[in-house]
Amino acid sequence: MRKKIVAGNWKMNMLQDEASQLVNDIIKEVKSTNDAITNEQEIIIIPPFPWIPDAVKQVDGYDNISVGAQNSYHEPRGAFTGEVSPEMIKSTGAEYIIVGHSERRSYFNESNEFLKQKVNAVLEAQLTPIFCCGEPLETRESNKQNELIEKQIQESLFHLNKEQISNLIIAYEPVWAIGTGKTATPEQAQEMHHFIRQLIAKKYGDTVAENIVLLYGGSCKPNNAVELFSKNDVDGGLIGGASLKAKDFIEIVQSFN
Ligand code: PEP
C-alpha cells in the first residue's frame, strides 16, 4: 500500500522564532488530534535551509514527521558559493529534497537537463527527491498538458533505473494553481496523476507504478483536500500557503478517508 504524504513547503517564509513556533504548533496539533496521523501516513516539514537543523531536533521521536529541504545543488562540495549540497542537507538529519519546483524552474531557469543532475545528486546522497512537474496556464488552455508533463518526466527521470525511480516522489503541481487560489478540480488532478502513473508503468512496469507516491500541489486547502485526496491516484499533497498555519496544515493531513 502506498504511503499517504502531506508535505509543507514553507518557501521563503518564517524567521527563526516563527519557524520553531510553527513546528511546535504542528506537533501540538498532531498530539491533540489523536487520529491526526496513522502509521500509513507521513508529514514532511520543508522549511528554509537555516531552520532545518532545529526542525529536525524538534520532530525527533515523532515517527511520522520528517523534515526536508526546498532545493539543493547537484555537486557534493566545492567552490560553488551560496549553494547547498544534498550531503550537507543529509548531515542535518533531513530526508527529502524538493527538485524542480515551478518557482525554481521559472525564476532560476532550471531546465529539465539541470534537474536531472539534481535528481541524481539527491539519490546519490540517499535522500528522497520530491520531483515537481506541472504545466503553465497557456499549456492547459491549449490542452497540451500531457505532452509537457511527459517531456518533464522523460527528460529528468527516465534515465533512472527501477530501484532509483522507486525511491522518488513525484508532485504534480499545475503552475496556474500554485499560490493563485485556483485549484485543479479533483477530476483534473486524478486524470493527470493517472497519466503519470501510466507513463511510469510503460517504462518501469506495473509494480513500480503502483508503488510510486504521487502528490498534488496547487492551492490545496482544508476545504478542498478531502475531495482531492479521495481520488485513486492522489496520494497526498505538497502544500504551500496552507502549510504556514498549523491548524490548516493538520486539517489537510486529516483529509484522507
Ligand atoms: C507549492 O508551493 O508547492 C504550492 C503548492 O503552493 P500553494 O499551496 O500555496 O499553491
Keywords:
257 residues, alpha/beta, TIM Barrel, 8 strands, binds phosphoenolpyruvate
Radius of gyration: 17 Å
The best one-word shape is: globular
Q: Major beta sheet, specifics?
A: 8 strands, parallel, barrel
- CATH superfamily descriptor: Aldolase class I
Main structural class:
alpha/beta
How far apart, in Å, are the first and last alpha carbons?
15 Å
Helix and strand element order: EHEHEHEHHEHHHEHHEHEH
Q: Low-confidence stretches at least 5 residues in length (pLDDT < 50)?
A: none
Give a brief outline of the structure:
44% of the residues lie in helices and 15% in strands. The protein has 257 residues and is of the alpha/beta class. An 8-stranded parallel beta barrel has the order 1-2-3-4-5-6-7-8, surrounded by 6 helices.
Describe the structure.
The chain has 257 residues and is an alpha/beta fold. It has a single domain, classed as Alpha-Beta Barrel (TIM Barrel), CATH 3.20.20. Helix content is 44%, strand content 15%. The chain has an 8-stranded parallel barrel with strand order 1-2-3-4-5-6-7-8, surrounded by 6 helices. Helix 11 links the parallel strand 7 and strand 8. Helix 5 packs across helix 7. The relative contact order is 0.15. The mean pLDDT is 96. The structure holds phosphoenolpyruvate. The site of phosphoenolpyruvate has 14 residues, from strand 8.
List the helices and strands and how they pair.
Layout: E1 4-9, H1 16-32, E2 41-46, H2 52-58, E3 65-69, H3 86-92, E4 96-99, H4 102-107, H5 112-124, E5 128-133, H6 137-141, H7 145-157, H8 162-166, E6 169-172, H9 186-204, H10 206-211, E7 214-217, H11 222-229, E8 236-239, H12 246-253
Helix pairs in contact: 1-12, 5-7, 11-12
Bound molecules: phosphoenolpyruvate.
